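Treating backbone geometry as a discrete language has practical consequences that deserve illustration. No coordinates are needed to read the tokens, only the vocabulary itself. For completeness, the protein is quoted in full, as a sequence line and a line of structure tokens:
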Amino acid sequence: MNPGPPTCSATELYLSPSARVSGFCRPASPPGRGLLGPPGLAPTHIPVCGLFLPAVAFLVALQQNKQLIGDRGLLPCRAYLKSVQQYFREQGAWDAWSYAPTIIWLLDWSNMDFNLDLLALLGLGISSFVLITGCANMILMAALWGLYLSLVNVGQVWYSFGWESQLLETGFLGIFLCPWWTLSRLPRHTPTPWTVLWAFRWLIFRIMLGAGLIKIRGDQCWRDLTCLDFHYETQPVPSPLAYFLHRTPWWVHRFEALSNHFLELLVPFFLFLGRRMCILHGVLQILFQVVLILSGNLSFLNWLTIVPSLSCFDDASLGFLFPSGLAGLKDRALKLQDEEAQGAQSRPRHVGCAVRRVVNLSLGVLLAWLSVPVVLNLLSAKQVMNTTFGSLRIVNSYGAFGSITKERTEVILQGTASPNASAPDAVWEDYEFKCKPGDPWRRPCLITPYHYRLDWLMWFAAFQTYEHNEWILQLAGKLLVNDAQALSLLASNPFEGRPPPRWIRAEHWRYKFSLPGGKHAAEGKWWVRRRLGPYFPAVRLEDLEGYFREQD
């Protein structure tokens, strides 16, 4: 594979409606006739991809942040930032800033809902602009990265998932694929830096290898190939396809587990075995992510993982995706390349070229330095997954499903209007969540890449206790007053249009998929459930008053 000269040239980033993408990703261009030249001569680039992912992330923030971390949220970010200030009160303000870097430190805290909406709207607006126009520059991409970093660092447990750091790392790399300030679908003088190209490959390598190693070192079921006997049923938010995949024959599950190990432990090394194997790596990883997208609701994780996989392809392998008509993007790119070859195009200024080289070199040194603890973590027998080694989340460790739960349990919140919670005639009515299992007759949802943060945390809460999840008592208190903001996180309120419940309780249930063609499926049930016992006992608002006062 010909790496091409790492110098500035007039070569265009031609496969790019969003080369520098809205999706924290973008394409690039070759130093020659990439689209028409022999496949072995064209360097590989990152094509148009994932343009909507930052828009989705900021949309989720806009629709859910006030309820989760706003002024009257389940875990208010104002209280969190005050606790950070208190912890670092002797060291000084800079230590608090460096621990939780966020623009919110600079804003007025009297209306935190406004601050959160402002950051989300700015992010949504910028990402939508890049998505629609196909134009971006370093300033816009850096703004997207800074805005989302500001939300993640005050999001607490709601933003504790690995894909948040992965989006930030991908977005940080995307900054350096763009021109300084030019807004053009075919920006001049901005060839793809090989530093960034290999940084994306290094990212997908770590994502997949980290996921594979954490499985082999983790749950025994990954070593005996039985994890897929349970995974489809017990994953956080199953999809409709998961219902049927769960019932496939045992030998299918063994093949799936073995294929998973092949894709996560062996295929990543294809990146270093030449052009054809690199392209094969990209194809296999993208197909793998598509299967995961269909079989589960893992937020935008799998969509996001496709982005660095696209760095495996070169122009010759992707040129067929772009129309060849006159005045088309590909035609314009080829004309620019012809002009450059004939010397008709002006050359970039020497100073700008030199600055770009220094920036790219500095980026390479920074990524290498920040990768040291990540590599040590990968090599460690005590590997930790989804860990960030710095508050800026530039280089992180990843992994998924190192252990598999063998039984699915759910926390079901219920309310009653009865004055006596223990009365035999008390009628308890269920609260339904947006996507997590509840009503046995409700079909599993498919919402990826969107993400219901509360539904995910309810899955974790089900195999912990309510003492480990103080927010669930906050939620119970809000349901006791029919709080509209909290109820917007749920699918249904059994007390809508009525006085709020007098009591709230949480029940622990065991859930299993119904058998297709069986008795329960014939009744229209997707799930069969059995009560295990109370998760927390029935409580009134008065019972929680002392707790709420203590929590301010």
Q: What stands out?
A: Residues 112 and 521 are 47 Å apart (CA to CA). The first helix runs from residue 53 to 69. The first strand starts at residue 44 and ends at 45. The radius of gyration is 26 Å.
